[in-house]
Amino acid sequence: MMAGASAPSPFYPMLQQEIGFPAAGLTGIFAVYTIAPLASLLAMGPLSDHIGRRPVISGGFVPIALGPLLFWQAGDVMGLMVARVLQGIAAGLLLSALSAAIVDLEPKGRRGSASVRNSVIPLTGLATGVLVADVLMDATAGAEANVFGSLVVAYALFASSSDSFRDRAAA
């Protein structure tokens, strides 16, 4: 999820040139993503405590899948901003629910291991997303399709496979 949140970043200069928007537009695209996850965490962070991890995780992967799809098809700055807002809202929702799920599934004898996972995994994902997207931009002609198409498919699969999480959590 976090890899997908950072994957669009290497495409911004190319999109800026193709679409033709000013530096302020680029700043705006970055800015909306910083606000959206924070607002989402504040407003919906405890949601999975009330309605359950599975519905929040499944539901969170739907809007996050729309983000890369919108990036892939965007023709203006507003489209890119909407994609980032969707990604940000879903990332905030998923980050809280997935972090809570990691704590829920923490082995009884290994208390504290969840905090390490919840610290390292998101940062590793952010770094991986930028790196993989950048490598694909340099190595392939269809990098947008490869990156954004793969993310849409992966997120759709994650949303539909949340049943396995429920089964493991109940065990």
UniProtKB/TrEMBL annotation:
One Gene Ontology CC term in the entry: plasma membrane
Topology relative to the membrane: Multi-pass membrane protein
Regions crossing the membrane: 20-44, 56-75, 81-103, 115-133, 139-158
Pfam families membership: MFS_1
Main location: membrane
Superkingdom classification of source: Bacteria
Domain called Major facilitator superfamily (MFS) profile: residue spans: 1-171
InterPro entries named in the record: MFS (IPR011701), MFS_dom (IPR020846), MFS_trans_sf (IPR036259), MFS_Transporters (IPR050171), Sugar_transporter_CS (IPR005829)
Gene Ontology MF annotations: transmembrane transporter activity
Keywords: Cell membrane, Membrane, Transmembrane, Transmembrane helix, Transport
Subcellular location: Cell membrane
PANTHER family: MAJOR FACILITATOR SUPERFAMILY MFS_1 (PTHR23517:SF13), RESISTANCE PROTEIN MDTM, PUTATIVE-RELATED-RELATED (PTHR23517)
Protein name: MFS family permease
Organism: Shinella fusca
